[in-house]
Design a protein that fits this description.
about 250 residues, SH3 domain-containing protein, SH2 domain, Sho1_SH3, four-stranded antiparallel beta sheet, transmembrane, SH3 type barrels
């Protein structure tokens, strides 16, 4: 699973879990400060800070997929520590213990969610539900699985010089075909490529020059309507590939 900051900021579910995790840690930290000599609780607070920081930093640096198994293991350890902590803290009535326990509860719920999401493959129903309507990036070595469970066609193949030349040649050939004439006085009309209206806005991946960005409601001319990535042309003449699930089928 190749995550980057876009998959957090543009996915409300993942963004909410990240914010709630930070809030949970802050509440646990304040509770530990109120308790003072909290012993094991301080170690858990520091452990959670390092774990959250490492996960967010790896996503920011776009290297999360290199350490995914390691993070899942550390999340499992964290859930075990938090479970032990909650059972110990909730037995006291002091404000510090109650606050630390509440923070630990928030953290453990969010981390259970992360284990389910980060531990699920891109073909799983969990992944498809969480990232419904969101285009996940391809791996550099293998083609990723599309949102509907079918292999995503290589974007490089669609945008290679041969494919681009072929599509351009086909477009020229179609444009040269005249509409059937009923009378000699009827003017010839060229066959037009279909157009589609974007259902959602999309920002092109900066690492892939073949993709193009578009806004919600923008009309694009579809040059090649095959597979999960279509070749399209904007009204300003910009051509590139776009995710098909952002347009009416």
């Amino acid at each position: 699973m190749q995550l980057n900051t876009t998959h957090i900021t543009k996915n409300p579910i993942i963004l909410a879990s990240a914010i709630m995790s930070v809030i949970g840690w802050l509440i646990a930290f304040v509770g530990a400060c109120v308790i003072g000599k909290a012993g094991l609780l301080w170690w858990i607070v520091i452990y959670e800070l390092l774990l959250l920081g490492a996960i967010f930093f790896s996503i920011y640096r776009n290297v999360f997929h290199h350490h995914q198994i390691m993070f899942l293991a550390f999340l499992g350890i964290s859930i075990s520590l938090l479970t032990t902590t909650i059972s110990g803290l909730m037995g006291y009535d002091s404000a510090g213990n109650q606050a630390a326990g509440a923070g630990a509860v928030i953290l453990i719920v969010m981390q259970f969610f992360w284990v389910i999401v980060f531990g699920s493959s891109e073909e799983s129903i969990v992944f498809q539900i969480v990232y419904s309507g969101f285009t996940f990036p391809r791996s550099q070595n293998t083609a990723a699985i599309g949102l509907h469970g079918s292999p995503k066609e290589s974007k490089v193949a669609l945008s290679s010089p041969e494919a681009t030349g072929y599509a351009h040649q086909q477009h020229q050939q179609v444009s040269m075909v005249s509409v059937y004439q009923d009378s000699p006085d009827m003017a010839q009309q060229k066959l037009q490529n279909p157009t589609a209206i974007a259902l959602h806005p999309y920002t092109a991946n900066p690492d892939d020059p073949n993709e193009i960005s578009f806004e919600k409601g923008e009309k694009l001319e579809i040059l090649n309507k095959s597979g999960n990535w279509w070749k399209a042309k904007k009204e300003d003449g910009t051509e590139g590939i776009v995710p098909s699930n952002y347009f009416p089928q």
